[in-house]
Amino acid sequence: MPSCETTSLVSKCTVFPDQKSTLGHLKLSVSDLPMLSCHYIQKGCLFTPHPSLPSNSLIPLLKSSLSRTLSVFPPLAGRFTTDSAGYVYITCNDAGVDFLHANATGYKICDLLSPLDISPSFKEFFTFDRKVSYSGHSSPLLAVQVTELADGVFIGCAVNHAVTDGTSFWNFFNTFAQVTRGASKSLYKVPDFTRDNILISNAVLRLPEGGPKVTFNADAPLRERIFSFSRESIQKLKSIANNRKWTDANNAVELIMKQSNDYNIQKENGKVASSIFDSWFKIGVNSNSKPQNAVETVEISSFQSLCALLWRAVTRARKLHPSKTTTFRMAVNCRHRLEPRLESYYFGNAIQSIPTYASAGEVLSRDLRWCAEQLNKNVRAHDDSVVRKYVEDWEKNPRVFPLGNPDGASITMGSSPRFPMYDNDFGWGRPLAVRSGKANKFDGKISAFPGRDGSGTVDLEVVLAPETMEGVESDAEFMLYATPQL
Fold first, then answer.
1. How far apart are CA 309 and CA 472, in angstroms?
2. Do the bridges between strand 445-450 and strand 458-464 make them parallel or antiparallel, or are there none, so unpaired?
């Protein structure tokens, strides 16, 4: 294993959009503004490079495609401005983004992926470490670092969190990959930059001189690890949460229904729907169909079932007093919850954080089903009226988002296994892995990624205090469902 700090900077430049922006100023919304105190998002993908694409061809290719991608996403090449009234805007002035080329040929892919804990070397593959989003007034809103390894390449993006949420971030990353591999423009998910919805407010967020600081201790000792869960394990959890027997047929139906509800799949392939229902009948779903007068019951999702498992394991590992209130926060996409709906690719933040509370005693004395029900209840209730109530409450008391775990009993779930992270094919295949940098890491911060195989597996990037991580690793219930690491 190479020693630390083996990444060296080869070059750095500014990349500009290849076309001038026609957008003016985009006002930050009530979902954007709270993120001004957060670090830039740092996410990236690990690849084996194209064997016939040497460095002197790869770097110019990526610079050129990034320039063209910025013309699809002009706000990312802009800067923040604050007017005399205190409103913050993205000025789409084509000021450009940072592009860094780094060398880490002392690392092999196996060096990075084999350790049990996430290799700290990944943090060297991002720039803008601990950069707070407010600094977008003077710094680029996006930086891309391409790091060459002995047998691979890592493409890491750092994006201002007051500009994008996960939906917008991965749409940019996917488009960057599509442009690089020469995909048809018809495949692009064109971002929607309109600012005529309930999230655009007249409320002013008053900030201290010099801008806000992060709301957690970024120097606290932490361990980071990826726990993987197979589709089969997740479906077993879902069956437990829904109080039914797990079968292979249930597993197949779950996958079919996810595909049938995926708007993008339907849109891009009109034949999908018929093939889905052909499969449905082949596995004999009709024989188990409910009578027409059957009472509809609420179904707990696969992901909520997995979150319940995590909630219990972390609570056990923290050894909290039974009366201590625990919090499980889930970030939810509000685009489809509002009426009228926002566009699927509305550009910006359109997320809200849903907290679910329960005492440590309840979490551990009740079963997994009960914990999953509490999460499900809050997510289901988060409809148009609740989204608007959140907006109204924020307008009465504008404030930054309180990331962190101040009471030692919180879990914050971010990202989503539905994000198309492994769709980032730059022309030399899908990523081998998705990893993050140092940004916004604290005890209890969890990020959900899709598994690489695309069959419904989920990877959880778990960040915990070292002693808590040890407890989770020895938790019999949790490890029963986690995929053993070879």
1. 11
2. antiparallel
Q: What is the mean pLDDT of the chain?
A: 90
Strands 153-159 and 223-229: unpaired
What CA–CA distance (Å, rounded) separates 221 from 170?
29
- Rounded Cα distance between 339 and 385, Å, is 9
Calculate Rg over the CA atoms of the chain.
23
Q: Which of 466, 463, 470 is nearest to 443 (CA)?
A: 463
CA distance 202 to 189: 30
Tell me the per-residue pLDDT of 86-95, one tens digit each, with 9 for 90 and over.
Answer: 999 999 999 9
| Contact call for residues 302 and 237 (beta carbons, < 8 A) | yes
Distances (CA, A) of 373 to 297, 298, 323, 379, 475: 12, 9, 20, 10, 22
Q: Are 116 and 11 in contact (CB under 8 A)?
A: no
In tens, the pLDDT along 120-153 reads 999 999 999 999 999 999 999 999 999 999 999 9
Quickly tell me which residue has 């020693």 as its tokens: 3
Crossing angle for the helix pair 368-381 and 302-318, nearest 10 degrees?
120
CA distance 43 to 19: 26
**First CA to last CA distance, the chain:** 18
Angle at 441 between CA 462 and CA 476, to 5 degrees: 20
Cβ atoms of 306 and 458 within 8 Å: the answer is yes
CB-neighbour burial class of residue 454 (10 A; exposed 0-12, middle 13-18, buried 19+): exposed
- Strands 142-149 and 97-104 turn out to be parallel
Contacts 24+ apart (CB under 8 A), 453-458: 454/422, 455/231, 455/255, 456/231, 456/234, 456/235, 456/254, 456/255, 456/258, 456/302, 457/228, 457/229, 457/230, 457/231, 457/234, 458/228, 458/229, 458/234, 458/303, 458/306, 458/417
Q: d(Cα 110, Cα 115) in Å, to the nearest integer? A: 9
Helix axes 231-241, 248-260, angle to 10 degrees: 100
With 0-12 / 13-18 / 19 or more C-beta atoms within 10 angstroms meaning exposed / middle / buried, residue 20 is exposed
Answer yes or no: is pLDDT of 283 > 90. Answer: no
How open is the CA angle 99-105-107, to the nearest 5 degrees?
Answer: 110
For residue 396, the surrounding DSSP H or E stretch is helix 384-396
Cα–Cα distance between 160 and 130 in angstroms, integer?
11
- Top pLDDT among 256 and 239 is at 239
- Checking DSSP bridges between strand 79-82 and strand 88-91, what pairing results, if any? antiparallel
At residue 416's C-alpha, the angle toward residues 463 and 30, to 5°, is 95
3-state secondary structure of 195: coil
Q: What's 438's DSSP letter?
A: S
